[in-house]
Amino acid sequence: MGLERFCAKTPGMVTLALHARSLLCIIGLLSSVSQPVCEAFNLDVENPAVYSGPHGSYFGYAVDFYLADASVVIGAPKANTRQVDVTEGGSVFYCPWSLSQSDCHSIEFDAEGDRNALLNDTKHQVDFKSHQWFGATVRSHGDTILACAPLYSWRTEKDIPRSDATGTCYLSVHNFTKFVEYAPCRTGSFGQGYCQGGFSADFTTDGKVVLGGPGSYFWQGQVISAAKENIIKAYYPGYFMQSVDGQMQTKQVKAEHDDSYQGYSVAVGEFSGDQVEDFVAGVPKGLMLYGSVRKLNHHSHFGFHCDALRFRALGFKLGTDIGKMVDLLVGAPMFMMRGSGGRLEEMGRVYVYLQQGPLNLELSEPHLTGTQVFGRFGSTIAPLGDLNQDGFNDVAISAPFGGDDHQGLVYIFNGYSGGLREKPSQVIAGQWAAGTIPASFGFSLRGAQDLDMNGYPDLIVGAFGVDKAILYRYVILTFNTSASLTVSPGMINPEEKNCMIVNGNTNFQVEVLLDSRDHKKKGAVKRALFLDSQQPSLHKSVRVRHGERVCDHKKIYLRDEKDFKDKLSPIYVAFNYSLDPKAAADSHGLRPILNYQTTNVIEQKAQILLDCGEDNICVPDLKLAVVGDRKEVYLGDDNSLTLTFNARNEGEGGAYEAELYVVLPPEADYIGIARNNELTCSYDTENQTRYLSCELGNPMKSGTSLMEGLRFTVPRVKDTHKTIQFDLQIRSKNENNSHSEIVSYKLEVVVQAEVILQGVSRPDKVFFPPANWQVTKNYGTEQDIGPGVEHIYELVNNGPSRISHTLLTLHCPLNVQSNHLLYPVEFSTVGPINCTSDHKINSLSLKVSHTCTTAHLSGSNKSCSNVECWKLQCTVGLLERGTTAILKVRSRVWAETFIERAYKQYVLECLARYSVEKMPYAILPKHYPSGHKKVFVLTPVVWNKPDIENSVPLWIIILAVLVGLLLLALLIYILYKFGFFKRSVPYGTAMEKAQLKPQAASEA
């Protein structure tokens, strides 16, 4: 359809959208839309044709147009086919063009499985088609389609079970009526065993096939070309090696060119001025890995090559034909440049060479460089034709791993006399987020063909990671528009509450997003609403005719101050308009668009009036002082801490959204507020920094002074730093003088521990002489020596810090003047304690343990120099806070010594000492633990028998009882003889008693 026909239609619908930040009462909005202007230059990205292939087949790895039948051919190199015993042989799909997007079906280029040959009456498999990546390269020319399998392998030597990836290609000619194989590297010649023929391919205008094989000749690479008529003529089924008339190919060169990868990409163009097309081959690892491009002259049968162009890159894609002469585009998707931090970053680049004359290519600047790291900008380049009708061809360049989630991007660049515009006119993003395999949207591109026959070229984009290919058509009608916006008043007084909120109806549907540039968190409360709808958005559709102007105004109101915090930032009103998506499409299903150079978003702003003077600018002067209830924290302790701060504003104006910002060290935790008032604090983490923010006022007015305490614990103190630090600052949203100075409160990290040594004797006394003990010279058991005594010593770490190395020594008496005092039997320990003795113990063959003794004999005139002592020395390991190391020493008192010498009032006195040698910290303690550094454990020897040892023999008790009874009987007999037991009447006879009775009664 022609341009004039489309422009003759009625004017399109224009959708106007208004986006605004909150204002108080009146906002005037003025918009105008001018006449539409017809141009052809943008893709219709809203209505693409999407073709899908089998899951996991890499459908879309290669794409091309097939204009002979108005369709698209799409390679799927990992697709499964009907070939017998072939896994993932690959396929090419035929997808007819229609608005209904008909299903694609596979083209059966090769129906055979792996082939065999009969050698010496034995069948040998000669080729291997599994995983050959058939369809990795697809090109079309007229009614011919070329499809290649660069990883196809065949057995080069009959006696050696080895296969080489020579690669092979097939041609479909005469609209799929005939299929022929073309495998120019399957020759058996030395050096072509890993050719990978068909890795890249192209057609000349007259139908010559051009193949790239980057693996030939030890990866020097190779370019091969033959006319398709000669290929068809030379093909004979069943013959593996065929000679094609007129075939040209590059030869092996010096070994210094090994690993160059010539043929990684190929393109066709006329550069020599002889009106015969030449070939261009990418050599991505040539020139010491800088990369190069070689132009191959057909007259010399590829004996001539030109290394005039070189780039810092490892991969290339080539494109031609930008201007009126054939130009050259070279993609370097792995180009690296230094970023802002000085580090190399892979950005990708495209170089443009403009042909000024025969063999005269000049590099155009500036170069096109990618904007996203690892996006692989320049991976594929596709000429598009002259989209915007300015006389210069335009180009599509892909970054298949660019964009959000690396879904892939395709950039459209318009050409001009100096090469390509620096900025793209359109950027198309893939619709599919990256999964296990990135979508790779844009990995393959083909353009400059009018598939739907509407007079304008189309673009097909492959996204093999999601097994899709997308066809985009070009819009041919563009509207040029203009708009303006006025906001009144520019300053809003929150004290003027003169807006009446009513639920009225309106004929307009303007779409508004208030506070559209709010920098607060997502979901923050909008500061303003539309007056007639009490909503933050409105939408309106309007029809604008040629040259017509449309004006409108709306009122919005500021919300109550309690509903939002931000009073300082401007309130933006954003006016946005676009074409109505419901506008009528043309007969090809295309809709008009706005000129991409048109500004369709306009912003204005207003301020909220503050109590800050005539200039409406508040300048606070924020002061902060901090004191704490401690200066030290101890390793191993919970370390409670209270920080008391005094926050003041001594400036001229209020501090808006003022907060106390406290950065917590990693060792600390926030508990709460020290006092019960209205201070509100919240705890959060940002970029692994933990901080506390406490609201001080909105605004914190001038003259305000606030004092409050914050409580913390510091339980995770480590010895990696000698101090820990709290950083405190008052922050506000004011534009000027918004923060106070940072106040740091430091705490010194201290190592400190309280260590106690305590001991006890069991029993606390030893009585002599021992009960039932007899002198003997043959000691069979330890009881034969004398009474037992056990000393228990406890070394306690009360913390808070740990101790790791302590020496504990014990001295007890052993002999005095060759007389035995104590006989050590055994000792035992509990905890990390290890002891050694300077005397042999356990002479009665009891279990030997480490023991240590030395002491002096109390109650005698003998000095310690006359006493032989024994010493037990112990090493105590790591003791955590609250843990104990216990030493138990069990001995026997030599009864023979004390009975024979009749010693009285002896005190066996053992002395224990400790010394903390080390604490397990990099920080040294100010003072090593002292506490009770020594302790005496006394065991008195008492020469009197306890109650249980003074019991009376039974016969004495019986005798005493009998004597007592005898004496009692004798006493009774004597009393009897003296009449003690005779009864007497004191008052005489009974008569006498009767006579005395009344007198007794009267006396009573």
From TrEMBL:
<keyword id="KW-1015">Disulfide bond</keyword>
<dbReference type="InterPro" id="IPR032695">
    <property type="entry name" value="Integrin_dom_sf"/>
</dbReference>
<dbReference type="InterPro" id="IPR018184">
    <property type="entry name" value="Integrin_alpha_C_CS"/>
</dbReference>
<dbReference type="Pfam" id="PF20805">
    <property type="entry name" value="Integrin_A_Ig_2"/>
</dbReference>
<dbReference type="Pfam" id="PF01839">
    <property type="entry name" value="FG-GAP"/>
</dbReference>
<feature type="repeat" description="FG-GAP">
    <location>
        <begin position="120"/>
        <end position="181"/>
    </location>
</feature>
<dbReference type="Pfam" id="PF20806">
    <property type="entry name" value="Integrin_A_Ig_3"/>
</dbReference>
<keyword id="KW-0472">Membrane</keyword>
<feature type="signal peptide">
    <location>
        <begin position="1"/>
        <end position="40"/>
    </location>
</feature>
<dbReference type="InterPro" id="IPR013517">
    <property type="entry name" value="FG-GAP"/>
</dbReference>
<dbReference type="GO" id="GO:0098609">
    <property type="term" value="P:cell-cell adhesion"/>
</dbReference>
<keyword id="KW-0675">Receptor</keyword>
<keyword id="KW-1133">Transmembrane helix</keyword>
<keyword id="KW-0401">Integrin</keyword>
<dbReference type="GO" id="GO:0001525">
    <property type="term" value="P:angiogenesis"/>
</dbReference>
<dbReference type="InterPro" id="IPR013519">
    <property type="entry name" value="Int_alpha_beta-p"/>
</dbReference>
<dbReference type="GO" id="GO:0007160">
    <property type="term" value="P:cell-matrix adhesion"/>
</dbReference>
<dbReference type="GO" id="GO:0009897">
    <property type="term" value="C:external side of plasma membrane"/>
</dbReference>
<dbReference type="GO" id="GO:0046872">
    <property type="term" value="F:metal ion binding"/>
</dbReference>
<keyword id="KW-0732">Signal</keyword>
<comment type="similarity">
    <text>Belongs to the integrin alpha chain family.</text>
</comment>
<dbReference type="GO" id="GO:0005178">
    <property type="term" value="F:integrin binding"/>
</dbReference>
<keyword id="KW-0165">Cleavage on pair of basic residues</keyword>
<keyword id="KW-0479">Metal-binding</keyword>
<feature type="transmembrane region" description="Helical">
    <location>
        <begin position="954"/>
        <end position="976"/>
    </location>
</feature>
<dbReference type="InterPro" id="IPR013649">
    <property type="entry name" value="Integrin_alpha_Ig-like_1"/>
</dbReference>
<dbReference type="InterPro" id="IPR048286">
    <property type="entry name" value="Integrin_alpha_Ig-like_3"/>
</dbReference>
<dbReference type="InterPro" id="IPR028994">
    <property type="entry name" value="Integrin_alpha_N"/>
</dbReference>
<feature type="domain" description="Integrin alpha second immunoglobulin-like">
    <location>
        <begin position="612"/>
        <end position="749"/>
    </location>
</feature>
<dbReference type="GO" id="GO:0033627">
    <property type="term" value="P:cell adhesion mediated by integrin"/>
</dbReference>
<feature type="domain" description="Integrin alpha third immunoglobulin-like">
    <location>
        <begin position="755"/>
        <end position="855"/>
    </location>
</feature>
<dbReference type="Pfam" id="PF08441">
    <property type="entry name" value="Integrin_A_Ig_1"/>
</dbReference>
<dbReference type="InterPro" id="IPR000413">
    <property type="entry name" value="Integrin_alpha"/>
</dbReference>
<dbReference type="GO" id="GO:0008305">
    <property type="term" value="C:integrin complex"/>
</dbReference>
<feature type="domain" description="Integrin alpha first immunoglubulin-like">
    <location>
        <begin position="502"/>
        <end position="611"/>
    </location>
</feature>
<feature type="repeat" description="FG-GAP">
    <location>
        <begin position="183"/>
        <end position="235"/>
    </location>
</feature>
<protein>
    <submittedName>
        <fullName>Integrin, alpha 5 (fibronectin receptor, alpha polypeptide)</fullName>
    </submittedName>
</protein>
<dbReference type="InterPro" id="IPR048285">
    <property type="entry name" value="Integrin_alpha_Ig-like_2"/>
</dbReference>
<keyword id="KW-0812">Transmembrane</keyword>
<dbReference type="GO" id="GO:0007229">
    <property type="term" value="P:integrin-mediated signaling pathway"/>
</dbReference>
<keyword id="KW-0106">Calcium</keyword>
<keyword id="KW-0325">Glycoprotein</keyword>
